[in-house]
Design brief:
The structure holds two protein chains of two kinds. Chain A is an all-alpha fold. Helices cover about 80% and strands about 0% of the residues of chain A. In chain B, strand 2 and strand 3 (about 85-90) form a beta hairpin. Classes of the chains: A mainly alpha, B alpha+beta. Chains A and B meet through helix 1, helix 3 and strand 1 of A and helix 3, strand 1, helix 4 and strand 3 of B.
Chain lengths: ~200, ~120
């Protein structure tokens, strides 16, 4: 691609495939995955029990998102195979969360092994930094600036929840903050999907 | 003044002759739009082009046929989930024609000729 305009057009075409609210839905599901176990654990469920209770909900929602994409969005937008340049960029995006999680695990291990650092690590640094890094990488590789904002919001949810827990003395404050943010994202996703359906109709041949 | 006018006339004549050599197959707004949207992807189907260009089915079909006949795009008709599916792809010839057109238009529109009545007193 030689000209700036072509880059703009390619970017517009690529981002048009995300206008139905998938990113917002995934963010909401991700937050649900964190908020629900936190809520369950406060009611006496163990880590495994909480995870087992949450997993089917997240799976059903993820399957629903993929079905909507497959049977509602793609027939309306059409099938496109992007240029190798764009495909390389998207594939790089997959590497970033993996590297971040590995780095997070290593840092987490170092912090938890060191008793003096443990209190800083628990529930704060990884839960704030990992979403910020992953969302920023996604914003860069997908050319979508709004993901920087989403990363900042998701990163802020945990410190905010912890802070609110000290102000509003309730065992549900942190999960409630996470779940509230999750539902906000799912709400935004629904609004985007409705707007998309109103704008695009399945073309009859 | 006279010299500048002559220079301007010469450039205008040159650019006009260049305009006559422009690829008319690419120059049509509908076909230019189709080629532009196909140039930014490896391949796309008819629904993609329909959405992006805003053309009607009939108009899209007619222009795609003309581009296909010229060898600028490749059309693959297949069945996907038991439904007919048309995939379109820019050929090397089409890509070259599209970029040649772009370059020619850029050259034509970037001519720094004095505008009579504005720059010349």
């Amino acid at each position: 691609m030689d000209t700036l305009n072509e880059k703009k057009i390619e970017r517009r075409v690529f981002t048009s495939f995300f206008q139905a609210g998938f990113i917002e839905a995934f963010t909401g599901i991700f937050l649900l995955q964190l908020g629900l176990p936190a809520l369950f654990s406060r009611y006496g469920f163990g880590d495994w029990e909480s995870a087992l209770l949450t997993l089917p909900i997240a799976l059903i929602m993820l399957i629903a998102v993929f079905l909507v994409r497959r049977f509602v969005v793609i027939p309306r937008l059409g099938h496109v195979k992007f240029l190798p340049e764009r495909r390389r960029k998207v594939s790089k995006l997959i590497i970033v969360p993996i590297l971040t999680l590995i780095a997070g695990a290593i840092v987490g291990y170092i912090f938890t092994e060191n008793a003096s650092l443990r209190h800083i690590f628990v529930g704060q640094i990884p839960f704030s930094l990992i979403p910020i890094i992953v969302f920023s990488a996604a914003a860069y590789f997908l050319d979508m600036k709004r993901l920087y904002v989403y990363g900042a919001i998701v990163g802020l949810v945990f410190p905010l929840g912890k802070y609110l827990e000290t102000v509003i003395v309730s065992r549900n404050t942190l999960p409630a903050t996470i779940l509230f943010t999750a539902f906000v994202f799912l709400g935004i996703a629904t609004v985007f999907l409705v707007a998309f359906l109103r704008k695009y109709h399945e073309p009859g041949v | 003044m006279k010299e500048l006018e002559n220079q301007g006339k010469k450039q205008t004549t040159d650019s006009l002759s260049e305009i006559m050599n422009i690829d008319r197959l690419v120059h049509s707004p509908a076909r230019l739009s189709i080629l532009t949207y196909l140039s930014v992807v490896e391949e796309g189907d008819a629904v993609y082009l329909l959405n992006q260009t805003g053309l009607t089915w009939g108009n899209l079909s007619a222009n795609v046929t003309r581009l296909q006949e010229a060898g600028y795009i490749e059309v693959v008709k297949e069945f996907k989930d038991k439904k007919p599916h048309t995939l379109l792809k820019l050929t090397n010839r089409g890509r070259k024609a599209f970029y040649d057109y772009q370059n020619k238009m850029k050259e034509l529109l970037d001519i720094k000729s004095p505008s009579p009545g504005r720059d010349v007193e």
